[in-house]
């Protein structure tokens, strides 16, 4: 995968993030085919880059409560 410059993007915090600052993710918009995601508690670490279609499917599954949960 090619490198993506994320140094000037605007990050937005997930609306599902914890209000006290824990368990937060941020996403960067304005990438038509990709969704950069990072941990807001450690923004210096590299972001994860997801295909926009895969990210949309993930978000839909989370919102709909249909995301499979691995068994212990």
SSE layout and pairing:
Blueprint: E1 11-13, E2 25-28, E3 34-39, E4 48-51, H1 52-64
Antiparallel strand pairs: 1-2, 2-3, 3-4
**Total count of helical runs of at least 4 residues:** 1
How much is the radius of gyration in Å?
13 Å
Using the alpha-carbon principal axes, give the shape. Answer: globular
Number of structural units classed as domains? 1
Report mean pLDDT, rounded to a whole number: 85
One letter per element, helices H and strands E, the order comes to: EEEEH
Strand order in the largest sheet: 1-2-3-4
Portion of residues in beta strands equals 15-25%
| Low-confidence runs of at least 5 consecutive residues | none
Largest sheet report: 4 strands, antiparallel
Question: Span between N and C termini?
Answer: 33 Å
> How many strand segments?
4
Secondary-structure-based class equals alpha+beta
Helical residues, percent:
10-25%
Protein name: DUF397 domain-containing protein
Domain DUF397: 10-63
Organism: Streptomyces sioyaensis
What does this structure look like?
By secondary structure, the chain is of the alpha+beta class. The protein has one domain. Helix content is 18%, strand content 24%. It has 1 helix and 4 strands. A 4-stranded antiparallel sheet has the order 1-2-3-4. Strand 3 and strand 4 (48-51) form a beta hairpin. The longest helix is centred in the last third of the chain and has 13 residues, at 52-64. It is globular. 4% of the residues are buried. The model has no long low-confidence stretch (mean pLDDT 85).
């Amino acid at each position: 995968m090619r490198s993506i410059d994320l140094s000037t993007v605007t990050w937005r915090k997930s609306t599902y993030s914890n209000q006290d600052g824990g368990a937060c993710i941020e996403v960067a918009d304005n990438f038509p085919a990709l969704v950069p995601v990072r941990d807001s508690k450690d923004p210096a670490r590299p972001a994860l880059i997801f295909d926009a279609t895969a990210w949309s499917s993930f978000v839909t599954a989370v919102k709909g409560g249909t995301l499979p949960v691995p068994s212990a």
